[in-house]
Amino acid sequence: MMAVRSCLGVKFGVSGLLSQLTSSTRHHGSRPCVSPILTPQHRNTSSSSTSSKVKVDLDQNTGVAVMHMQSPPVNSLSLDFITELCISLEKLEMDKGCRGLIITSSQPKVFSAGLDILEMYGKSPERCGEFWKSVQELWLKLYSSNMVTIAAVNGSSPAGGCLMALTCDYRIMADNPAYSIGLNETQLGIVAPFWFKDTLMNTIGLRNSEMALQLGLLYKPQDALKVGLVDQVVPEDQVLPAAVKSVNKWLAVPEHARQITKSMMRKSTIDRLTSNREADIQNFVSFITRESIQKSLRGYMELLKQKKA
Ligand SMILES: CCCCC/C=C\C/C=C\C=C\CC(=O)SCCNC(=O)CCNC(=O)[C@H](O)C(C)(C)COP(=O)(O)OP(=O)(O)OC[C@H]1O[C@@H](n2cnc3c(N)ncnc32)[C@H](O)[C@@H]1OP(=O)(O)O
């Protein structure tokens, strides 16, 4: 996408604005607009692509893709899964026919369990570094996406799962009190890095973030709604239809204006990570490989197992 500064440097007079507006009815940013008049060959055009952990259904009529996360049992973000997500996102971002993306889960009761704890436990520093680089990559791809992104949160979404939802433009969560969402890292004895914190703060503000992060709060859907962590709570079977409705509302806005605005709102947060990626990886590796942190992770995994027994 064109850099924000150069975009903002363009001065729109009335005629400039008008031409921007008329061109927006033809083109949405660099993507062609989908004609509202459907010709026979345009009807019911959809494509589906599936890798082992990610299924994408793209409706070429509407330009909306639904990305189903299907990494059993709980969509925990392993290096392999993250790599597949990044590849799918890259393809959609390049696809001029795709303007909106809904992310949801195919796993029952869970949107995503966050980062795969097994990727952070008992692994070499090199492997931890590779893993963290992929986490950064996923965040960057999602947070800077030109597409309208909607998280259809149809299950629990702790830590990295919550972060994924937070990168989207809009979050809709299933109204089921058995589900929760939040950045609960401190509960595992680990620390959410600055860009997790920034993403949360950009969404729910400083005071709410202070409490949410220090206490490692996991919010029930109605509480998440109150604090602004999610934007809408709907009956479980309405999550996807509500996401489709929302994405269409967002897509009705002239695309280049929306994209520039999104970029302007997120640029400083994105720049902060892009200019510190290597240091952030080193920080993560030295933090996560500490004996005390490894011990906390081991204890947490045991707790998860005990919960089942
Ligand atoms: C100052 C310097 C700072 C530098 C920065 C440093 C560090 C930052 C580091 C890390 C940041 C990490 C962010 C994260 O995302 S950590 C992951 C946090 N995730 C969780 O806490 C979620 C844990 N899981 C759950 O709460 C439940 O599983 C869940 C509610 C998601 C689902 O419950 P359900 O009852 O349906 O399923 P379970 O029986 O609990 O789980 C099934 C199965 O899956 C395993 N599992 C669950 N979550 C994870 C996970 N995140 N990773 C790996 N494996 C997971 C669980 O153990 C069960 O396994 P099994 O018993 O069937 O073998």
TrEMBL record:
One of its GO terms (molecular function) is delta(3)-delta(2)-enoyl-CoA isomerase activity. Keywords: Acetylation, Fatty acid metabolism, Isomerase, Lipid metabolism, Mitochondrion, Transit peptide. SUPFAM superfamilies: ClpP/crotonase (SSF52096). It catalyses: (3Z)-decenoyl-CoA = (2E)-decenoyl-CoA; (2E)-tetradecenoyl-CoA = (3Z)-tetradecenoyl-CoA; (3Z)-dodecenoyl-CoA = (2E)-dodecenoyl-CoA; a (3E)-enoyl-CoA = a 4-saturated (2E)-enoyl-CoA. Its EC number is 5.3.3.8. Homotrimer. Key enzyme of fatty acid beta-oxidation. Able to isomerize both 3-cis (3Z) and 3-trans (3E) double bonds into the 2-trans (2E) form in a range of enoyl-CoA species, with a preference for (3Z)-enoyl-CoAs over (3E)-enoyl-CoAs. The catalytic efficiency of this enzyme is not affected by the fatty acyl chain length. This is Enoyl-CoA delta isomerase 1, mitochondrial.
